[in-house]
Every structure is written in structure tokens, then in C-alpha cells.
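This section describes the prediction task in plain terms. A model, or a person checking by hand, is given the sequence of a single protein chain and must write out its three-dimensional structure as a string of C-alpha cells. No templates, partner chains or ligands are provided. The sample shown here is typical of the held-out split.
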Amino acid sequence: MKLRWSTLGRGTLLFAALSCVCIAACGHSSSSESSAQGTTAPQAATFPPAPAAETTGGFDGARAYKHVEQLVAIGPHSSGSEGIRRAQEYIVGQLKSFGCPVEEQDFHAPSTPVGDVAMKNIVVKIPSANPKIILFTSHYDTKRIANFVGADDAGSSTGVLLELARLLCARKNAETIWLAFFDGEEAFDLNWADPDNTYGSREMAASLALSGELRRVKAMILVDMVGPTNPIFKRESNSTPWLTDIVWSTAARLGYEHVFVNDDATIEDDHLSFLKRDIPAADIIDLEVPYWHTTQDTLDKVDPRTLAITGHVLIESVPELEKKIR
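The expected answer:
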């Protein structure tokens, strides 16, 4: 993803020093990545406990954190690697243990900079009497960097989506809800340049358009890098305004206005695959972190409280989304 900050904020000067004009979010910044090669970072940290699930709409930040911990323990899992096959087994196994209906959607990206790569999107489809779809998404592949475990990028969002699945698969929802875990978000090359990125989300959007199901998707919410302590989630300016409004107003109602702030950022991410096909979409991400795309993106960077905040906002946004698209 390429990023342009519309307003200055936390970490701006640091990022300016690392990359002169713009950064590629979950894509690549050669200056920042190369500076951390060979650095050994701690793999765990002691954080205050996540808030009790009964205070966060049932979303358990400690459970979400455990998923991140398991994904980090797998090690690097870039697309096409043995590591990602282990990550896929873990995600699918957890989803099935929750009673979720799981589809493994295999596909090939034939023209990557490293050749043909087998990929897999993992999709949960929770049915309802209403065919309109609310789609929650994350990517689960890690950047193709030696020793990069991607605790925040993309372990944090994958952990949040797994815990969200546990809640949503166990209840009756007014609308059909899907959750998609995308493969191939990260660029293989050093720089984020089309079409070397967002392979999984582009594949899903294209497949749904071909089948005619895409028109059923009324809202797509992407989470990506939602683990840091003291997070700041800015309103992504490509995103659909009414959808962003629902998420951000829900956050404010829950007391998280200091986290979901009203500053703007412009980010290229998996949500663009759906926006380009006229599907309302929004992105939740905090990219202003010094460890982005370095080997320092380790478990000690992920705070269970932040996972709980993100999940609380998502689960409480569902009724508002259902009212909007009804």
C-alpha cells in the first residue's frame, strides 16, 4: 500500500526520515526495511490484561492475542511458503472449531515477480434470511523478508478476525456476514507497484463479480495493523464516507474517539479491490509505527487492549450496518 498523510501526526518525522516522500503501507519502504535486517527483537512483552469480554461486547482481546501468538510462533509466512501453509491450517482449524462454515478458495497468481505462486483465500460465509452481505476482511500473509514474523502486520488483524468469527458464527445475524482472510496482500518486489500487490482481494472481488454475487456485498470493512499500543486510526480518504462514519461514530460512542480520530490519511490497501468495483469499503489501520516492515515487528509490539478496542468497535458496528443496508 502506498501512503500519503493528509495531516501530520505521531511518527511523521520518523517516517519522513525513513522514506523521503511517501511510504508503502504493508507494501515496501526499502530504507526502513533494510535498516532492520539482522536485528533481534524480543518475541513477547508484558502488557496490562485486555478488558473483560463482558465490557467489550463479548469480544475477548486475550483470545485474539493468543491467535497472534500462535501465528508468530509459526514464523515467517509469505505467500507460497511452507510457513503460510501452516498458517492456513491454523486459521482453518480455528474457524472449524468455532462451528464456522469455511471455504478454502485456492487460486494462482501466475505473473508475480517470483513466478507463479499458489495462493489461498479463506472465507467464512454465515448465512441469514437476508441475502445482503456485510464483509469483514484481513490479510494473513507476511512480507517476504528474512526473519519477518509480522506480529502486527498481519498477525494483529488476523487475530481480531478470528475472534470476531467466534462471536458471529455462534449467533443469528440479521444480515448475511462473510469474513475473508486474504492471501497475497504483500508485494513480492521491494516496492509496492501495481499489479504486484493485493492478489487475494483482487481475486475475490473478480470472482464475485463473475458469479454475480458482488452486488450482494453492501459493506466491506478491512482491518490491517491494529495491534500497537496507543493506536491512532485515521480516516482513510479513499474509503466510502458513510461506512467510515458508521465505524468512527460507533468508536466515539464507545469512548474510543482518541483512537479513531478524525484526521485523514490516504492508503492503498485491500479495500481498493472492492472500491474499484463500486462496493462501499473502509480501512482500519495504524501505519505510523517505527517497526513497520522490519524484523522488529514482533509479538512485543502487539497490545491485547488494542485488539479488544478494535474488536469492540467492529462487533458494535454490526447492528448499525444492518440498519443502514436493510
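For orientation: The CA atoms of residues 219 and 280 lie 5 Å apart.
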